[in-house]
Amino acid sequence: MRRSLRKLVVLASILALLGATAPVATAVPAACENRNNNTVQKLLECVDVEGVREHQAAFQEIADANGDTRASGTPGYDESAAYVAERLEAAGYAVTIQPFDFVRFTEVSPTILEQTAPLPGGPIDNNVMSYSGSGDFTAPVTVIPAPPADTTPGCEPSDFPATTAGTIALISRGSCPFAQKATNAAGAGAVGVVIYNNIAGDLNGTLGSTFTLDIGVTGITQALGQQLAAIAGLELRLFTETLREPGTTSNVLAEKAGKNADNVVMVGAHLDSVPEGPGINDNGSGSAALIEVAEQMARVNPQNTLRFAWWGAEEASLVGSTEYVNTLSDEEFAKIALYLNFDMVG
Predict the structure, then answer these.
(1) Which of 235, 314, 315, 323 is an active site residue?
(2) What are the start-end ranges of the E strands in the chain?
(3) HEC string of 153-187?
(4) Tens digits of per-residue pLDDT, 303-312?
(5) Which has more pLDDT, 5 or 40?
(6) % of residues, the chain, pLDDT over 90
(7) What whole-number distance in Å separates Cα of residue 327 and Cα of residue 316?
(8) Would you say 142 and 254 are in contact if contact means Cβ atoms under 8 Å apart?
(9) Is 292 among the catalytic positions?
(10) CA 119 to CA 112: how far, in whole Å?
(11) Nearest Cα to 101, choosing from 266, 331, 293, 312?
């Protein structure tokens, strides 16, 4: 996080202050809360991990009070957005809340994945993909060749043999979006999809809010996927019960006017978590880092206009940032000299 913070601070401050004539400080002249951090060196002295962690702790408290999630469309997200807006307004920024509609995803019942043949097995740990459809099927498994046999597993319709119809497709992660793999599997007649990671660790994925097929899709670890793929005559049960419904959420934008109103330096991070957790790393780390940098730049009079953004519904497939770009006029768009994105800097 320290390395990422330094990169964020240096990039944002150099670009925002470009053309300023303030001298580089050689020592900290006053408490960070009371000084003008108008050079890169000054700002680096004042933005630290402890300050970022304060905001992450606030996000965790919000999640604790709201069902352990800060997903867009939930009270946890709304309170997170209010926290960001309150901090930035208190720091003197011009804050804008940009509401927009999106498709909200809810896992109604816990997803069940279990082996039924050649021998019955217990539940298999899994994480339903956001925007998965619903279903309850017990079926044979079609294993889609993984790397190195196929470097783009499940990414082409031709990856799925005719025998995929009526089966559950087991596919390795990699090379194309999860939704593309699931769409190809459904097109071949699969009744369910299990995608396993291509690195160690759990797989928490999203199919994106534009995915509308009513087919259950879930994720498992690489070790489990490879183990299942090696079982002859494998049969699985996949039960998913989900809900996709209209929702409303928002972006938070904070701006400090510069001497040059026609040159905007913009930095952003997504504020929402996945529905399954509080998102303190993904992306509470990036969101908290931006709050801390913005607060420490509050007394700066930048050469270029500085704009911070916290995006909503990123986990629904970049909906918030896309909404923002689509609402800009050509003139407004042309003013943005650079956009820097900070996702999981922790």
Answers:
(1) 314
(2) 94-117, 127-128, 135-143, 168-172, 192-196, 216-220, 235-256, 260-270, 304-311, 336-341
(3) CCCCHHHCCHHHCCCEEEEECCCCCHHHHHHHHHH
(4) 999 999 999 9
(5) 40
(6) 85
(7) 18
(8) no
(9) no
(10) 17
(11) 312
